[in-house]
Amino acid sequence: MAVCARLCGVGQSRRCRRRQRNNLQDQGSDSEMDEEEEERIVGQRQSGVSVGVGGGGGPVSGAANAGLSDACEYGSGHMNRAGSGPPLPQSLAELPPELLVEIFSRLPGTALPVVALVCKKFRQILNTETIWRTRCVEEFGMKEDLRKMEAGGVSSRDLYVKLLHPYRHILGLWQPDIGPYGGLLNVVVDGLFIIGWMYLPPHDPRVEDPMRRRPLFRIHMWESKKATVECMYGHKGPHKGDIQTVKKDEFSTKCNQTDHHRMPGGRQEEFRTWLEEEWGRTLEEIFHEHMQELILMKFIYTSQYDNCLTYRRIYLPPAMPSALLQPGLFKGTYGSHGLEIVMLSFHGTCARATKLTGDPNVPAGQLTLDVDLSRPVVLPDLEQQRSIEELSRLVLGIHEEVEKEMEADHGSCSGSEQPGPSSITNPPEAQPFILPLGVMARNEVYPRTCRKCFYGTGLIAGHGFTSPERTPGLFVLFDEDRFGFIWLELKSFSLYSRLTDHLAHAHAPNIERFEAMLHNMQSWTS
């Protein structure tokens, strides 16, 4: 800060000012003693200080502290060299209060407690609501009229210090630990609340419908001067909850009034209500016996987590310059398991889809699709596309080549190579596409043209993720927001549609963090 002041011409270096001060005859000994005493006191207060908003800030360097003490070390202005006009400011402390408010408003909120330690004037100016209002908007994207909130008795400073800053570490994208089922949670600043929204796929099989979302918890300051955590689960409205930070990139929620989750009709009424919300139908409307078993199993399993949940941070895949399609989150059909959410990411010549929600066969966190973009598949004419034997011949021929290469190289699609223009960029014009006869599809309405097709493998397993194996299939790119996969062994087709919701605070700080997260996801749910 001191350096900025000197560059702007409102201050000088400490050494120059001290020489100038000693040479001036009008500086009395009393004022010198006061200034030296103030310098000594400020220096003592700042030495070894590590201050943050709400006690959570990081250490501040000695150079920064020295610069801040410079700002208030010399409080008396000096006349300009012409000897006329008002005195020129010699430090930050001599600037007009409105200018200091503007300067402090541009500092990160974590630095403001350190600024308050410099002198009484700075401490008083930091009580200005404009400063904290600006920090709430710039750091947390608040769009509400905070003046109305301040008129209601909650200051912008309290909002920042007691709510936004202490809970900033839980903002972003998370995967709940619900065994094989997983999930997708986005914690955002929503109005004057921090809300944890659980994102749910649309009802099966309407894969192109928008996502549904349900609040799991919220944090606010409406009823008191401190942040209040409330559980939103159940059917009796908000009730007492708690949030605990387990470790970095992990936190837990706990409900303190689980009786709010119970319904008068007991478990049967709870199951009927859950089924209507989860599947959009009654059990009588689901004729497939195996699907009924899967639904009942999911209800019993997930009900165990209605009072306490742990969440682990996840990130959206980084954008790629490829013209194939952009990475992101997609909802896809998985037979009797219904719709699930996957994360599509690119790694060199590979495209990989990782499950964010899962099922008892292939749990969340597993690599459901692995596509080799260096191995395009040229589809035959429509009449031959109707033959599952013809499609199998094309795909299995490539599969045998891949296995021979893996045996020779003792490797797999590592993603180390960069995608070539012939395989990824400049996709051709749309070509006709139709599913082979005998291939089951949850969606009878699917695109009848596609851009490109590639060889890939899909992960299948028995109940409880037993005997997992990768089976060959065909990855079909329809457009920027839709793709499909034909599982040859299962004679099944999955259609995927892009999740278009805006998910705040969800991008990885760098590619290394994203890759590490992706690697760890498999161990979370294995």
UniProtKB/TrEMBL annotation:
Name under which the protein is recorded: F-box protein 31
Keywords: Ubl conjugation pathway
Family from the record: Belongs to the FBXO31 family.
Domain F-box, chain residue ranges per copy: 89-135
Region feature (Disordered): 18-56, 406-428
PROSITE patterns, alphabetized: FBOX (PS50181)
BP GO terms, sorted: protein ubiquitination; SCF-dependent proteasomal ubiquitin-dependent protein catabolic process
